[in-house]
Give the backbone structure.
Amino acid sequence: MLLARAPHIVIQPDERVSKRTIRFRIGGDATCTGAAESTASSVADIILDTAAARVT
């Protein structure tokens, strides 16, 4: 699972921070949902991206 780096998220010793292009699956904030790796930049791209996803 991808999570946004934030002050309230503790990075565990076996985890690493990396920079990726992501989107969040639902509206809300980073504390209630993980991110999906995605380069979708329009509503149409997001719909196609979501339709192809195996984990939603």
